[in-house]
Amino acid sequence: MRQRFSLARLLASTSLIAAVAMGLGGCTGMWKLSEVTGSVGPRAEAAPADPARAVEVYGERYRANPKDAGAALAYGQALRANGQRAQAVAVLEQATIANPGNKPLLAQYGRALADNGNFQQAFDVLSKAHSPDNPDWHLLSVQGTALDQMGRHEEARSYYASALKIAPGDPGVLSNLGLSYMLTRNLPKAEEALRQAYASPRASTRVRQNLALVVGLQGRFAEAETIVKADLPPDQAAANVAYLKEMLNRNDAPRGAPKRTPVASLSQPD
């Protein structure tokens, strides 16, 4: 087991920084289709558990009436969950044209744009999905991640701060704040935010992994290993440790070797 890490080399790695930043497009598993259908239809209904099946079900409803906002929302969400990002953007773009001013559609369209890497456009669209007199903290957090993707870290943190005023202690927002500090190499501040997130009973596995990464980047691998193994079955703990080691040693791979997306990722709370 290798426990020597070159922090300067690791943080200077374009591949690592880019991969951490691209998490906004990589956490489609967080989205809950039932929340979308319940928010726009007359009654909530359970979404198909299988993403591909959800695309079939909601795609059929959408094609029956492409101008229906609820059908477009559910279909766009299903496409995003299934990794069909460009198609989700196209569907939601047309839906916003057919339903101008529909804030739930604008919110979903902005998220889809962010998934697809259109960060400036995503930020602009999300700005229309809520207003300063009635802000949505979920959207403030997503706007922060878009700003982080564009390298505008100080601005991003102001959005996270605004979100935390509305939802104090939210682990997803705190995790995003921690990763924002990580991207500017301020690892103590990153750890501080991520420890606050990790202390929440609502913290996700992603928060645990992000904290372990930041701790490991500071050379404290034994502590990072303890974090990723805590309260997990042995097989899952071993897989997490292996993944953490892979990430911390990724810069030692031969030049040109394929890189995997790291554990750390910016969250998108719905």
Automatic annotation (TrEMBL):
A Pfam family the protein falls into: ANAPC3
An annotated GO BP: protein O-linked glycosylation via mannose
Taxonomic superkingdom: Bacteria
UniProt-recorded Gene Ontology molecular function terms: mannosyltransferase activity
Record bears the keyword Signal: yes
Cleaved signal peptide residues: 1-18
UniProt KW keywords: Signal, TPR repeat
Protein name according to UniProt: Uncharacterized protein
